[in-house]
Amino acid sequence: MEHTQSTAKAKWKTELADWLKSFVLIGGLTAFIYVFVMAPYVVQGRSMESTLHDRERVIVNKAIYYLQQPKRGEIVIIHPDASGENWIKRVVAVAGDTVEAKDDQLYVNGQPVQEEYLTANKLKAAANGITLTEDFGPITVPPGHVFVMGDNRNNSMDSRVIGPVSLEHVVGRAELVYWPLNSIRLPK
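Structure tokens predicted for Signal peptidase I (188 residues):
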């Protein structure tokens, strides 16, 4: 009888240890993925409308910029300062580019940038008798930096105010809008 009890107790301890190892492994793997690979992000504010809306949720690819530099047009999450806040913006210029805006037109390296994603916002601004993008620049983006802007230019704190953003402060690229469910899409 005693042998059966000790065998049952040993089996129970082994099973408990296996469960604990599994939970630790799953927890560690989850933490690794969240910190280094991908994570959810809640859009806060209206600075990216009409591309992304307040309270929408996106999946952020954190690993992509270990492999490559951000490109013009990509929507990125940045951590611009010590406030602890993350912002979501669009990369409009990369290191070495000269960026400016004149007469509601964005220019990179002297060439006008076609920004189809701004069509609705430009129409709204024009209906209110204002321009969407106020004149600024020219600004040359230094090495190791990007110049970011919100798509809702009249309602965006971005590189026009804070300056070019260091690549060290780029958290990742927005890959997928997953909430609300009726709005699942790839952000463009």
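The domain at 43-183 is CATH 2.10.109.10 (Umud Fragment, subunit A).
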